[in-house]
Design brief:
Elements (H helix, E strand, L loop, with lengths): L6 H20 L4 H17 L3 H12 L10 E6 H5 L2 H5 L2 H6 L2 E7 L2 E3 L10 E7 L6 H13 L3 E7 L2 E3 L3 H7 L3 H4 L4 E2 L1 H8 L14 E4 L4 E4 L6 E3 L5 H16 L4 E5 L16 H17 L4 E4 L13 E3 L4 E3 L3 E3 L1 H13 L3 H9 L8 E3 L8 E2 L4 H5 L5 H12 L10 E3 L8 E3 L2 H4 L8 H20 L4 E4 L38 H20 L6 E3 L6 E6 L2 E6 L5 E2 L7 E2 L4 E2 L5 E2 L4 E5 L3
Parallel strand pairs: 1-2, 1-20, 2-5, 5-11, 11-12, 12-15, 15-16
Antiparallel strand pairs: 3-4, 6-10, 7-9, 8-9, 13-14, 17-19, 18-19, 21-22, 22-23, 23-28, 24-27, 25-26, 25-28
Helix pairs in contact: 1-2, 1-12, 2-11, 11-12, 13-14, 13-16, 13-18, 18-19
Length: 597
C-alpha cells in the first residue's frame, strides 16, 4: 500500500488551496503573515491528534469515497431527548446498530447560553459540552464506542454566530477591541439601510436582523435571534479562531461537522447577504484545513436555500481547477418535494428536484431525509415549482395548507412563523404529518404507514446518505408538552422534538416502520445504488421513477393503484416476488424492481 503523507506533506500539497481562499477573503497584503499563523495551528493540532484518529485518517485517505456507499445511512437526535446524557446514549448504540446506522448527528451538543438558546444553537462555548449532557471525556468514550460499530459522529458547528454570553461576546461587551471586531456593530442609519435588503428568518418570534446593544455602541447584527451575534468573517482573526476550534473538536473524535447557516456567513451592503461568493471561500478554507490536519473528517453544509443555489456548496472551479467545499449537503428541496408530492398526489415536483440533483463531483453526496429537527420550509422550492405551474405560490400554499391539516387533510402539521395565511413553514413529526395521528381504524393506519415508507423510499432510493430523525423509526407523534414550558412555548419546532419513547420499540407502529426501513436499506444495498440520483419517466404523473444502481424504483404518490411498465420478469425486492406485466403500484406504495440474478 502506498505511504500516507504526513501533515507537513499535506501542508505542502494542500496549503496553496487554503492560502488561495485566504487571499480571496483578506487580500494579499499581510497574507504571508496570516498564512504562517494558520500553518502553525495546523501543525499544532495535527501533532496532538490521537493515534486512533491518525489511523482513521490513513484509512480514509486510502478510501476517500468511504461515505458514498449503499449501506451508508444515518440518524440524527438530541442527546437529552434520546437518552438523557452522553453516557446514556453510549448505552443505546445497540439501537442504532440494529437500524444499520453508519453516521450519527448529535444536535445542539455543545454548551449553549443560559435560558433561551434557539434549541441549543446559540453556542456559549465551542469546546465544551452542555454540562447537563456530560463532558468531552464522555464524547471521547462515545466516539470510541461508535467507531467500533463503524458509526461516524457528527456535531453542529455554528459558523454564523455565537451566543451573547460566549467569551468572545462577553469580552466585546466589556470593551475589548480585539473581540469587538469579532462581531458586526453598525450605526442606526446603517442598520436601517441594510435591513431593507435582508429577509427575516423568524419574522414572528424574532423580527429584524439587528439588535441595539448600548454596551457595544451600536446595533449588533443578529440574523436569527437577538442573543445570537453574527460573527464578522471579514476579520481574519475569526478565521484563525474557527480553524483552531474545528480542529480541536475533530481531535475529540468528531468525524463530521454540520456547518450551521452557511449561506449567511458573509455580509455585504446592498445585498441580501446570502450565498455570497465569500461564504463559499470561507467553507473551502475550512475544508482545506481539515484535509490537512484531520482528513478523516467530513463537512456537511446546512444550506437551506433555493435548489439552484445548492450545488456550489459541494465546490466549484473558479478558474484554478475544482476546489472542494463540503462532502455532504442537505437535499432540503427533495425533502420538501416529498411532502408536496403527498399533498398533491403528484410526482411532478419530486421528479423536477431529482433531475436538478444530479451531476455531483466525486467524493461528494447528498444527505437525504424526510424529516429533521427543523420545520418544513416551503419557500425554497418556489423556483422549481415555477417551472411546472404559472402560480407557484398558490400551488405551494395549497400544499402547505394540506400538510397543516386543513382542507379535510389526514396530515396534522402546524404552521411555523405564520398563522397559516402566509407561506413559511410547517412543524410536526413524520408520523403525524403522514396521517398516523389522525388515523382511527386499521385501514387509515395502513395508509399512513405506506406514506411513511414512501418518503423513506424517496430518501433511500435517491442515493444520498439517508438519515432518520429520532423517533421517526417508531412512529412518534406530535408532542404538545412544550407549550407548558416557559422557555419553549414560543418555539413551535418543539412539536417534533419530543423525548424518545423507548417503551414503544416493540409496538405495532415501530415494528411496521422499522421493518419497512430495513427492507428499503437492503434493497438499496442489493442494487448498489448510491450518489447522484437519476429520474426516469414512468408514464404516470402520480408515479416517480428513480434509477438506483441496477434497479428501477417506482413511488406512487397517490391514493389509488397505478399500472406501470415495471420490467416484466424482474423481481420486486420489497415483496420478494416476480413482477408481472402492467404491474400495479398500490396506493402510496413502492415497487422496487431489480433484475433476476
Amino acid at each position: 500500500m502506498a505511504s500516507v503523507p504526513s501533515s507537513d506533506q499535506r501542508i505542502a500539497k494542500l496549503g496553496p488551496r487554503l492560502k488561495r481562499q485566504l487571499g480571496r477573503l483578506y487580500g494579499d497584503e499581510g497574507l504571508d503573515r496570516l498564512w504562517a499563523r494558520v500553518a502553525d495551528i495546523l501543525r499544532a493540532r495535527a501533532g496532538e491528534r490521537p493515534a486512533a484518529l491518525v489511523a482513521l485518517d490513513e484509512a480514509r485517505l486510502a478510501d476517500p469515497d468511504w461515505f458514498v456507499a449503499p449501506d451508508m445511512v444515518g440518524y440524527s437526535t438530541y442527546v437529552d431527548r434520546f437518552a438523557g446524557t452522553l453516557a446514556g446514549l453510549t448505552g443505546r448504540v445497540d439501537h442504532l446498530e440494529s437500524l444499520g446506522v453508519r453516521y450519527l448527528h448529535l444536535l445542539a451538543l455543545l454548551k449553549a447560553r443560559q435560558g433561551d438558546s434557539d434549541g441549543g444553537f446559540a453556542v456559549a462555548d465551542y469546546l465544551a459540552v452542555e454540562p447537563r449532557l456530560g463532558t468531552m471525556a464522555d464524547v471521547e468514550r462515545l466516539a470510541e464506542r461508535l467507531r467500533a460499530g463503524r458509526i461516524s459522529l457528527c456535531v453542529d458547528l455554528a459558523l454564523n454566530h455565537t451566543a451573547d454570553d460566549h467569551a468572545w461576546a462577553v469580552a466585546a461587551r466589556a470593551g475589548d477591541p480585539h473581540y469587538r471586531a469579532f462581531y458586526h456593530v453598525l450605526g442606526e442609519a446603517e442598520a436601517q439601510a441594510s435591513e431593507a435588503d435582508l429577509a427575516q428568518v423568524f419574522p414572528t418570534t424574532a423580527p429584524g436582523n439587528f439588535t441595539h446593544m448600548p454596551a457595544m455602541g451600536g446595533w449588533v447584527w443578529t440574523t436569527f435571534y437577538p442573543f445570537q451575534w453574527d460573527l464578522n468573517w471579514a476579520n481574519p482573526e475569526v478565521m484563525l479562531a474557527m480553524i483552531d476550534t474545528m480542529l480541536r473538536l475533530a481531535n475529540h473524535g468528531f468525524e463530521a461537522f454540520r456547518l450551521d447557516s452557511t449561506a449567511f456567513l458573509w455580509k455585504m451592503p446592498g445585498t441580501n447577504c446570502r450565498n455570497l461568493p465569500q461564504a463559499h471561500f470561507i467553507v473551502r478554507a475550512l475544508r482545506a484545513a481539515l484535509d490537512i490536519a484531520a482528513p478523516a473528517t467530513l463537512l456537511k453544509a446546512e444550506a437551506i436555500v433555493p435548489t439552484a443555489l445548492v450545488p456550489p456548496y459541494f465546490g466549484a472551479d473558479d478558474g484554478d481547477g475544482f476546489e472542494a467545499e463540503c462532502h455532504l449537503v442537505y437535499n432540503n428541496s427533495l425533502m420538501v418535494a416529498g411532502w408536496v408530492g403527498l399533498a398533491e398526489q403528484s410526482a411532478a415536483l419530486p421528479d423536477a428536484i431529482l433531475r436538478a440533483s444530479g451531476g455531483l463531483p466525486r467524493g461528494a453526496n447528498w444527505l437525504s431525509y424526510a424529516r429533521c429537527h427543523d420545520d418544513i420550509g416551503w419557500g425554497n422550492v418556489l423556483a422549481d415549482l415555477a417551472g411546472i405551474d404559472a402560480d407557484p405560490v398558490g400551488r405551494l400554499t395549497a400544499a402547505a395548507r394540506f400538510i397543516d391539516g386543513q382542507d379535510g387533510s389526514w396530515a396534522r402539521g402546524e404552521p411555523f412563523q405564520s398563522d397559516g395565511s402566509a407561506l413559511h413553514g410547517t412543524n410536526g413529526t413524520m408520523a403525524s404529518l403522514a396521517g398516523l395521528e389522525s388515523a382511527h381504524d386499521d385501514a387509515a393506519r395502513d395508509m399512513a404507514f405506506r406514506r411513511i415508507a414512501l418518503l423513506n423510499a424517496l430518501t433511500i432510493a435517491s442515493g444520498g446518505l439517508a438519515t432518520t430523525y429520532m423517533g421517526d423509526e417508531i412512529g412518534m407523534l406530535n408532542d404538545h408538552g412544550y407549550l407548558a414550558d416557559p422557555e419553549r412555548w414560543h418555539e413551535g419546532r418543539w412539536l417534533h422534538r419530543g423525548r424518545m419513547d423507548w417503551d414503544r420499540l416493540d409496538d405495532a407502529a415501530a415494528t411496521r416502520i422499522t421493518r419497512d426501513l430495513a427492507r428499503l436499506r437492503s434493497a438499496r444495498v442489493a442494487s448498489g445504488g448510491v450518489g447522484a440520483p437519476a429520474a426516469f419517466a414512468t408514464g404516470a404523473p402520480e408515479v416517480l421513477g428513480i434509477a438506483c444502481g441496477t434497479d428501477r424504483v417506482f413511488l406512487n404518490f397517490s391514493g389509488k393503484p397505478v399500472a406501470v411498465d415495471a420490467t416484466e420478469g424482474w423481481r420486486d425486492r420489497l415483496a420478494d416476488a416476480l413482477i408481472m406485466r402492467d404491474a400495479p403500484v398500490e396506493p402510496w406504495s413502492i415497487l422496487w424492481a431489480g433484475p433476476v440474478a
